[in-house]
């Protein structure tokens, strides 16, 4: 944290503006070496949060590199709480990379992924839940998710949990005082009073845990996997749903050997559609790897469109996929393709295998029959079937710690109801307090921090 970091903070390509961000103790002095204003300003002495017009100049030969606007922001009132300079260049690759090269030559080093936000966390500008929300905000896949994550970035989502931490620590202090100085206290431990508090705390934590699935769905979107044996028309159906030629289609079984992905929006939710390799007789290593990837993607699916060739009876390859899908206990929509041909499949066998509540649609990837029914059922039955979100955005790490907090609250209740000694109750309170601090990021390990921030892009 003693060095100065720099990176391109915008997408690289052809655009009107590209921004290079510099943060650290040498940010202003580096800018002073490279920036020449029309009025010959000294960047080291200009006021904070001001914008200056001029040129980036190669200090070795005086050559002008780009016409820029340079923003000066002095710590601690910045994103990283360090001195920050942002160079607003023209958005082409050459001016951006040439300017960045000069910044690095002048004393900065290239920032690691997420290092600006990491410094914001380490310097106390944001807590860990706010920092995690930044990367989710960048990758948010719905407007609803955007609103949830902005609330988290502002620090509002976990305020009730942090208020709970103070209550927990107050009770912990009271119990430990009674243990250590019983003769000096007029107050005595009241189990029923604490149990009433535990009930309120548990309901609060349950509200957060119950919001995980819906917030994950809003942030990441639905993962919809098209599965089935080879040559049942999976790729053709994907093209029909997307209304474009996304997957390659031939009459040769096994044309699709890898997972092909595209997406569309239904009811404002991103639906990520994945066409998988068909299950069948494996002829080579490529097909074997394709099937392995199909199995992996099926295990991660939120909804599976399981496709059958309606013109053929069920065979061992159909049964293989059926067993795999049912074993994963996933939501399934059954599609009997090739309705334009003579139907030989026994649909009652499919309904018996998956249950009468599983929808079954007859479709034709050739004529488009039934395609509208697919999107309608996905939107009405599966998107609307998600649990209501209560304005909370919860990620997997946070869910895991909240689940441990829930277990600790349950353990506390059992200790108190069983009349266990106060020292055991106090120890459980210490654990509960540590868990809440871990959630906030007051307690952390380098491995955890590296794991979180390596998901970020360079420049954020």
Features:
single chain; 460 residues; alpha/beta; Gyrase A, domain 2; Four Helix Bundle (Hemerythrin (Met), subunit A); Rossmann fold; 3 domains; seven-stranded mixed beta sheet; six-stranded mixed beta sheet; 16 helices; 13 strands; flat
Description:
- It is a single chain.
- With 460 residues, this protein is of the alpha/beta class.
- It folds into 3 domains: 5-111, Probable tRNA modification gtpase trme, domain 1 (Gyrase A, domain 2), CATH 3.30.1360; 159-211 and 392-441, Four Helix Bundle (Hemerythrin (Met), subunit A); 218-383, P-loop containing nucleotide triphosphate hydrolases (Rossmann fold), CATH 3.40.50.300.
- The chain is built from 16 helices and 13 strands.
- It has helices spanning 27-34, 93-105, 115-122, 128-139, 143-153, 159-180, 191-210, 212-220, 234-242, 285-300, 316-328, 347-354, 371-383, 396-417, 422-440, 446-453; strands at residues 5-8, 17-23, 35-37, 50-57, 64-73, 84-90, 109-110, 222-227, 260-266, 269-275, 303-309, 331-337, 360-362.
- The protein has a 7-stranded mixed beta sheet with strand order 3-4-5-6-2-1-7. The protein has a 6-stranded mixed beta sheet with strand order 9-10-8-11-12-13, sandwiched between helices.
- β11 (303-309), α11 (316-328) and β12 form a beta-alpha-beta unit.
- α4 runs antiparallel to α5, α6 (159-180) packs antiparallel against α7 and α14 packs antiparallel against α15.
- The longest helix has 22 residues, at 159-180.
- The radius of gyration is 29 Å and the shape is flat.
- The two termini are 16 Å apart.
- The model is unreliable at 248-257 (pLDDT under 50).
